[in-house]
TrEMBL record:
UniProt organism field: Brassica oleracea var. oleracea
Protein name: Kinesin motor domain-containing protein
Domain Kinesin motor intervals: 89-249
Transmembrane segments: none
GO molecular function: ATP binding; microtubule binding; microtubule motor activity
Similarity section: Belongs to the TRAFAC class myosin-kinesin ATPase superfamily. Kinesin family.
One Gene Ontology CC term in the entry: microtubule cytoskeleton
Length: 249
Protein backbone atom coordinates (compact mmCIF):
# COMPACT_ATOMS: atom_id res chain seq x y z
CA UNK A 1 0.00 0.00 0.00
CA UNK A 2 2.81 2.44 0.96
CA UNK A 3 4.68 1.77 -2.32
CA UNK A 4 1.58 2.59 -4.33
CA UNK A 5 1.21 5.98 -2.63
CA UNK A 6 4.84 6.88 -3.28
CA UNK A 7 4.53 6.01 -7.00
CA UNK A 8 1.38 7.97 -7.36
CA UNK A 9 3.08 11.02 -5.74
CA UNK A 10 5.97 10.86 -8.25
CA UNK A 11 3.48 10.63 -11.12
CA UNK A 12 1.55 13.63 -9.80
CA UNK A 13 4.74 15.75 -9.65
CA UNK A 14 5.63 14.91 -13.26
CA UNK A 15 2.11 15.82 -14.42
CA UNK A 16 2.23 19.15 -12.51
CA UNK A 17 5.57 20.08 -14.14
CA UNK A 18 4.14 19.30 -17.60
CA UNK A 19 1.03 21.37 -16.96
CA UNK A 20 2.98 24.40 -15.58
CA UNK A 21 2.67 27.33 -18.12
CA UNK A 22 5.79 29.16 -19.28
CA UNK A 23 6.50 32.76 -18.00
CA UNK A 24 5.30 34.30 -21.29
CA UNK A 25 2.15 32.24 -21.26
CA UNK A 26 1.56 33.29 -17.64
CA UNK A 27 1.94 37.00 -18.50
CA UNK A 28 -0.55 36.62 -21.33
CA UNK A 29 -3.00 35.00 -18.98
CA UNK A 30 -2.58 37.80 -16.42
CA UNK A 31 -3.29 40.49 -19.05
CA UNK A 32 -6.40 38.62 -20.17
CA UNK A 33 -7.56 38.38 -16.57
CA UNK A 34 -7.12 42.11 -15.98
CA UNK A 35 -8.98 42.91 -19.21
CA UNK A 36 -11.87 40.68 -18.18
CA UNK A 37 -11.96 42.31 -14.72
CA UNK A 38 -12.08 45.83 -16.26
CA UNK A 39 -14.93 44.79 -18.54
CA UNK A 40 -16.87 43.27 -15.67
CA UNK A 41 -16.25 46.21 -13.27
CA UNK A 42 -19.25 48.41 -14.33
CA UNK A 43 -21.58 45.42 -14.11
CA UNK A 44 -20.27 44.63 -10.60
CA UNK A 45 -20.66 48.27 -9.50
CA UNK A 46 -24.19 48.36 -10.93
CA UNK A 47 -25.01 45.16 -9.03
CA UNK A 48 -23.60 46.61 -5.78
CA UNK A 49 -25.59 49.82 -6.28
CA UNK A 50 -28.75 47.77 -6.89
CA UNK A 51 -28.08 45.78 -3.69
CA UNK A 52 -27.61 49.05 -1.76
CA UNK A 53 -30.90 50.38 -3.13
CA UNK A 54 -32.73 47.15 -2.30
CA UNK A 55 -31.23 46.96 1.22
CA UNK A 56 -33.81 49.24 3.00
CA UNK A 57 -36.65 47.34 1.30
CA UNK A 58 -35.17 44.01 2.45
CA UNK A 59 -34.66 45.36 5.98
CA UNK A 60 -38.25 46.66 5.99
CA UNK A 61 -39.51 43.27 4.80
CA UNK A 62 -37.44 41.56 7.52
CA UNK A 63 -38.87 43.93 10.12
CA UNK A 64 -42.43 43.15 8.98
CA UNK A 65 -41.70 39.41 9.14
CA UNK A 66 -40.27 39.86 12.66
CA UNK A 67 -43.39 41.77 13.75
CA UNK A 68 -45.59 39.02 12.26
CA UNK A 69 -43.57 36.38 14.09
CA UNK A 70 -43.85 38.29 17.40
CA UNK A 71 -47.60 38.70 16.85
CA UNK A 72 -47.99 34.96 16.19
CA UNK A 73 -45.98 34.10 19.30
CA UNK A 74 -48.17 36.60 21.20
CA UNK A 75 -51.34 34.91 19.91
CA UNK A 76 -50.02 31.45 20.83
CA UNK A 77 -49.01 32.68 24.28
CA UNK A 78 -52.45 34.27 24.74
CA UNK A 79 -54.30 31.05 23.86
CA UNK A 80 -51.89 29.09 26.09
CA UNK A 81 -52.57 31.52 28.92
CA UNK A 82 -56.32 31.34 28.29
CA UNK A 83 -56.30 27.54 28.50
CA UNK A 84 -54.15 27.72 31.65
CA UNK A 85 -56.65 30.15 33.18
CA UNK A 86 -59.51 27.79 32.23
CA UNK A 87 -57.67 24.88 33.88
CA UNK A 88 -57.07 26.95 36.97
CA UNK A 89 -60.57 28.41 36.96
CA UNK A 90 -61.67 26.29 39.89
CA UNK A 91 -59.28 25.99 42.77
CA UNK A 92 -59.92 23.76 45.74
CA UNK A 93 -58.10 24.38 49.00
CA UNK A 94 -58.38 22.17 52.03
CA UNK A 95 -57.92 23.44 55.56
CA UNK A 96 -57.29 20.94 58.31
CA UNK A 97 -58.72 22.29 61.52
CA UNK A 98 -56.78 21.82 64.75
CA UNK A 99 -58.38 19.49 67.26
CA UNK A 100 -60.70 21.24 69.65
CA UNK A 101 -60.49 20.71 73.43
CA UNK A 102 -61.95 17.34 74.23
CA UNK A 103 -61.14 15.86 70.82
CA UNK A 104 -58.31 13.42 71.48
CA UNK A 105 -55.33 13.36 69.12
CA UNK A 106 -55.99 9.66 68.61
CA UNK A 107 -59.21 10.57 66.82
CA UNK A 108 -57.41 12.43 64.05
CA UNK A 109 -57.69 10.77 60.66
CA UNK A 110 -55.11 12.98 58.97
CA UNK A 111 -51.99 10.92 58.29
CA UNK A 112 -50.00 13.13 55.96
CA UNK A 113 -50.12 16.67 54.54
CA UNK A 114 -47.88 17.22 51.52
CA UNK A 115 -46.47 20.54 50.37
CA UNK A 116 -47.98 20.11 46.89
CA UNK A 117 -51.56 19.67 48.04
CA UNK A 118 -51.53 15.97 48.93
CA UNK A 119 -53.64 14.88 51.85
CA UNK A 120 -53.68 11.31 53.15
CA UNK A 121 -56.45 10.34 55.52
CA UNK A 122 -56.94 7.12 57.42
CA UNK A 123 -60.12 5.14 57.29
CA UNK A 124 -61.79 5.95 60.63
CA UNK A 125 -63.25 2.44 60.74
CA UNK A 126 -60.52 0.65 62.64
CA UNK A 127 -59.16 -2.78 61.65
CA UNK A 128 -60.54 -2.53 58.16
CA UNK A 129 -60.80 -5.98 56.63
CA UNK A 130 -60.15 -4.64 53.11
CA UNK A 131 -56.40 -4.35 52.55
CA UNK A 132 -55.33 -1.17 50.73
CA UNK A 133 -58.52 0.60 51.74
CA UNK A 134 -57.14 1.83 55.07
CA UNK A 135 -55.71 5.04 53.57
CA UNK A 136 -57.00 7.41 51.01
CA UNK A 137 -55.06 10.13 49.22
CA UNK A 138 -56.64 13.36 47.95
CA UNK A 139 -55.05 16.06 45.84
CA UNK A 140 -55.95 19.71 46.30
CA UNK A 141 -54.43 22.92 44.99
CA UNK A 142 -53.16 23.46 48.50
CA UNK A 143 -53.65 22.01 51.95
CA UNK A 144 -53.38 24.22 55.03
CA UNK A 145 -52.06 22.48 58.10
CA UNK A 146 -53.72 23.07 61.51
CA UNK A 147 -50.88 25.51 62.19
CA UNK A 148 -51.90 27.78 59.29
CA UNK A 149 -53.00 31.22 60.43
CA UNK A 150 -55.88 33.29 59.05
CA UNK A 151 -53.30 35.65 57.55
CA UNK A 152 -51.73 32.78 55.56
CA UNK A 153 -55.08 31.77 54.13
CA UNK A 154 -55.97 35.36 53.37
CA UNK A 155 -52.74 35.79 51.41
CA UNK A 156 -54.01 33.24 48.87
CA UNK A 157 -57.50 34.73 48.66
CA UNK A 158 -56.39 38.33 48.27
CA UNK A 159 -55.47 38.04 44.54
CA UNK A 160 -59.05 36.93 43.86
CA UNK A 161 -60.35 40.16 45.34
CA UNK A 162 -57.96 42.08 43.15
CA UNK A 163 -59.41 40.32 40.09
CA UNK A 164 -62.92 41.26 41.28
CA UNK A 165 -61.76 44.87 41.19
CA UNK A 166 -60.72 44.26 37.58
CA UNK A 167 -64.27 43.21 36.76
CA UNK A 168 -63.99 39.40 36.99
CA UNK A 169 -66.67 37.32 38.66
CA UNK A 170 -65.34 35.35 41.60
CA UNK A 171 -67.13 32.94 43.91
CA UNK A 172 -65.51 31.66 47.10
CA UNK A 173 -67.35 29.27 49.34
CA UNK A 174 -66.55 26.92 52.19
CA UNK A 175 -67.80 23.35 52.22
CA UNK A 176 -67.47 20.77 54.96
CA UNK A 177 -69.14 18.92 57.77
CA UNK A 178 -70.53 20.74 60.77
CA UNK A 179 -67.94 22.30 63.13
CA UNK A 180 -65.17 21.77 60.58
CA UNK A 181 -64.29 25.49 60.57
CA UNK A 182 -66.18 27.00 57.62
CA UNK A 183 -67.45 30.09 59.50
CA UNK A 184 -64.06 30.57 61.15
CA UNK A 185 -62.36 30.62 57.73
CA UNK A 186 -65.02 32.76 56.11
CA UNK A 187 -64.52 35.52 58.67
CA UNK A 188 -61.61 36.39 56.41
CA UNK A 189 -64.19 38.16 54.31
CA UNK A 190 -64.12 40.99 56.79
CA UNK A 191 -60.58 41.66 55.53
CA UNK A 192 -61.85 41.52 51.96
CA UNK A 193 -64.49 44.12 52.73
CA UNK A 194 -61.78 46.40 54.12
CA UNK A 195 -59.86 45.96 50.87
CA UNK A 196 -62.92 46.76 48.77
CA UNK A 197 -63.69 49.84 50.88
CA UNK A 198 -60.12 51.08 50.46
CA UNK A 199 -60.41 50.57 46.71
CA UNK A 200 -63.74 52.42 46.50
CA UNK A 201 -62.23 55.43 48.32
CA UNK A 202 -58.93 55.60 46.44
CA UNK A 203 -58.46 58.66 44.24
CA UNK A 204 -55.87 57.46 41.72
CA UNK A 205 -57.77 54.38 40.64
CA UNK A 206 -59.66 53.56 37.42
CA UNK A 207 -63.37 54.43 37.36
CA UNK A 208 -64.30 50.87 36.31
CA UNK A 209 -62.48 49.38 39.32
CA UNK A 210 -64.21 51.79 41.71
CA UNK A 211 -67.59 50.88 40.23
CA UNK A 212 -66.89 47.13 40.65
CA UNK A 213 -66.02 47.64 44.32
CA UNK A 214 -69.09 49.79 44.99
CA UNK A 215 -71.31 47.24 43.23
CA UNK A 216 -70.16 44.51 45.63
CA UNK A 217 -70.16 46.72 48.71
CA UNK A 218 -73.65 48.15 48.12
CA UNK A 219 -75.80 45.12 49.12
CA UNK A 220 -73.37 44.18 51.92
CA UNK A 221 -73.77 47.62 53.49
CA UNK A 222 -77.55 47.45 53.11
CA UNK A 223 -77.58 44.06 54.88
CA UNK A 224 -78.46 44.46 58.52
CA UNK A 225 -75.94 42.07 60.01
CA UNK A 226 -72.50 40.58 59.76
CA UNK A 227 -70.77 40.17 56.41
CA UNK A 228 -70.26 36.43 56.98
CA UNK A 229 -73.95 36.05 57.67
CA UNK A 230 -74.66 38.01 54.50
CA UNK A 231 -72.53 35.59 52.50
CA UNK A 232 -74.26 32.61 54.08
CA UNK A 233 -77.65 34.08 53.10
CA UNK A 234 -76.41 34.70 49.57
CA UNK A 235 -75.16 31.13 49.22
CA UNK A 236 -78.35 29.72 50.67
CA UNK A 237 -80.51 31.68 48.24
CA UNK A 238 -78.38 30.36 45.41
CA UNK A 239 -78.88 26.78 46.64
CA UNK A 240 -82.64 27.31 46.90
CA UNK A 241 -82.78 28.79 43.41
CA UNK A 242 -80.78 25.87 42.08
CA UNK A 243 -83.08 23.35 43.80
CA UNK A 244 -86.13 25.06 42.34
CA UNK A 245 -84.54 24.81 38.94
CA UNK A 246 -84.54 28.59 38.55
CA UNK A 247 -80.84 29.04 38.59
CA UNK A 248 -77.57 27.30 39.14
CA UNK A 249 -74.47 27.73 41.23
N1 LIG B 1 -58.43 27.08 62.18
C1 LIG B 1 -59.02 27.16 63.38
N2 LIG B 1 -58.31 27.52 64.44
C2 LIG B 1 -58.87 27.63 65.64
N3 LIG B 1 -60.17 27.33 65.90
C3 LIG B 1 -60.92 26.95 64.88
C4 LIG B 1 -60.40 26.84 63.57
N4 LIG B 1 -61.38 26.43 62.74
C5 LIG B 1 -62.47 26.32 63.51
N5 LIG B 1 -62.20 26.62 64.78
C6 LIG B 1 -63.16 26.58 65.90
O1 LIG B 1 -63.94 25.42 65.70
C7 LIG B 1 -65.29 25.66 66.05
C8 LIG B 1 -66.18 25.31 64.87
O2 LIG B 1 -65.88 26.14 63.80
P1 LIG B 1 -66.98 26.81 62.87
O3 LIG B 1 -68.08 27.34 63.67
O4 LIG B 1 -66.26 27.75 61.97
O5 LIG B 1 -67.47 25.54 62.08
P2 LIG B 1 -68.56 25.49 60.93
O6 LIG B 1 -68.01 24.56 59.90
O7 LIG B 1 -68.90 26.84 60.45
O8 LIG B 1 -69.74 24.81 61.65
P3 LIG B 1 -71.32 24.78 61.24
O9 LIG B 1 -71.40 24.04 59.93
O10 LIG B 1 -71.95 24.03 62.35
O11 LIG B 1 -71.77 26.21 61.12
C9 LIG B 1 -65.38 27.12 66.46
O12 LIG B 1 -65.33 27.19 67.88
C10 LIG B 1 -64.13 27.74 65.85
O13 LIG B 1 -63.68 28.83 66.63
Amino acid sequence: METYIYLSKVADKQQQEEEQPSIEEQEELNVADEQQQEEEQPAIEQHEQQEEEEQPAIEQQQELEDIDMIRNIGKQKCSQMKSQIMVRNVRVFSRVRLLLPGQGAANSVVEYIGEDGELVVRNPVRNSTKPGKDFCMFKFNKVYTPAATQAEVFKDIEPLVRSVMDGFNVCIFAYGQTRSGKTYTMTLFRNLIVLLEQCAKKKNIKKKKKQSCKKILGPIKRFDGDVVEYLKVMLLSLVHKSRAGQGRI
